[in-house]
């Protein structure tokens, strides 16, 4: 009964959630495969996208790089003396386009926001939080930042200068995804086989934990290796895992797995839709960034 009720919550909060199957043929274009965009990174740790479709790459050696759709470097951003290892989608903060960056160094971590004006100069707009070694985060429409901290096996909510634990007891929380209406938060567990769905309450707390999505695992293994996640405008969820990018429909059913790109020496760790029309799927595999055109379109960040 609990799963049935939660399914109703998810379905009602996702307008395009239809009853029929949503096979990968609705996503993939015949003749369009993975294309290598860049191989000049050391180890891509996360990806983000802005409303224009430009891709932001976090790399320990290169700080944060903004790439144009053709893979050319547009600008290097981030703090001058530290390395930004996690980035979140751009959003408008105090009237300015901002990019959130988590900087983890020597076992300590901070989250900092860069405006479009300050980022080109490496300037920090303001500090969002400190003393958190973050794996991933998302930003709700009301400005609340949800972030995973694998070392503590928790999810934090950051709002108005305060931080609080809103989910605990997850094996290794990594990627996060927020449904477009903000009512459901998805948390990936790299140490297990589930993506957990939580209901987001009005006060920002998380309730009704449910292993709503079951991931396909590598043979003879119990860990999915799940990393970054993204959603398309039809409500499909994409998650980077050891076996490839797994795609789920809004009811939690696995539509299929996009196999790892040819030439990728490591499995995907991050995935995002980008490009001018937000219909190109980008995946990070170790030091390489791949992309493929799709029939699907990503969810564009709200102003």
Question: Could you characterize what this model shows?
Answer:
With 303 residues, this protein is mostly beta strands. The chain has one domain: TolB, C-terminal domain (Neuraminidase, 6 Propeller), CATH 2.120.10.30. It is built from two helices and 24 strands. The chain has a four-stranded antiparallel β-sheet with strand order 1-24-23-22, with no helix packed on it. Strand 3 and strand 4 form a beta hairpin. It is globular, with a radius of gyration of 18 Å. It starts with a helix and ends in a 10-residue tail after the last strand. Mean pLDDT is 82; it is low at 11-19 and 117-123.
Q: What is the name of the CATH superfamily?
A: TolB, C-terminal domain
What is the name of the CATH architecture? 6 Propeller
Strand order of the largest sheet: 1-24-23-22
Helix-residue proportion: under 10%
Distance between the termini: 38 Å
- Under CATH at level 1, the class stands as Mainly Beta
- How would a textbook summarize the main sheet? 4 strands, antiparallel
Task: Classify the secondary structure makeup into a structural class.
Answer: mainly beta
- The tally of structural domains comes to 1
How many extended strands? Answer: 24
What is the mean pLDDT? 82
Strand content: over 45%
**Rounded radius of gyration (Å):** 18 Å
Contiguous uncertain segments of 5+ residues: 11-19, 117-123
Could you give the order of the helices and strands?
Answer: HEEEEEEEEHEEEEEEEEEEEEEEEE
Shape verdict: globular
């Amino acid at each position: 009964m609990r799963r049935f009720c939660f399914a109703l919550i998810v379905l009602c909060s996702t307008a395009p959630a239809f009853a029929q199957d949503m096979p990968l043929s609705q996503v993939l274009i015949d003749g369009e495969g993975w294309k290598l965009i860049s191989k000049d990174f050391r180890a891509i740790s996360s990806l983000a996208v802005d409303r224009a479709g430009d891709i932001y790459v976090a790399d320990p050696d290169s700080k944060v790089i903004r790439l144009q759709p053709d893979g050319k470097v547009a600008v290097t951003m981030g703090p001058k003396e530290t390395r930004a290892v996690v980035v979140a989608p751009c959003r408008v903060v105090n009237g300015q386009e901002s990019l959130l960056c988590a900087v983890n160094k020597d076992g300590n971590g901070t989250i900092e926001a860069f405006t479009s004006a300050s980022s080109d100069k490496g300037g920090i707009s303001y500090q969002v939080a400190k003393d958190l070694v973050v794996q991933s985060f998302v930003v709700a429409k009301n400005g609340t930042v949800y972030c995973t901290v694998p070392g503590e096996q928790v999810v934090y909510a950051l709002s108005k200068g305060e931080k609080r634990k809103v989910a605990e007891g997850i094996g290794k929380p990594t990627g996060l995804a927020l449904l477009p209406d903000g009512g459901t938060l998805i948390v990936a567990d790299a140490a297990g086989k589930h993506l957990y769905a939580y209901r987001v309450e009005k006060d920002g707390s998380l309730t009704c934990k449910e292993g709503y999505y079951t991931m396909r695992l590598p043979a003879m293994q119990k860990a999915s290796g799940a990393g970054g996640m993204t959603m398309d405008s039809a409500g499909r969820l994409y998650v980077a895992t050891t076996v490839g990018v797994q795609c789920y429909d809004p009811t939690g059913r696995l539509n299929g797995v996009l196999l790892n790109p040819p030439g990728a020496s490591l499995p995907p760790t991050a995935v995002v839709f980008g490009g001018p029309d937000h219909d190109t799927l980008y995946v990070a595999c170790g030091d390489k960034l791949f992309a493929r055109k799709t029939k699907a379109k990503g969810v564009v960040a709200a102003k």
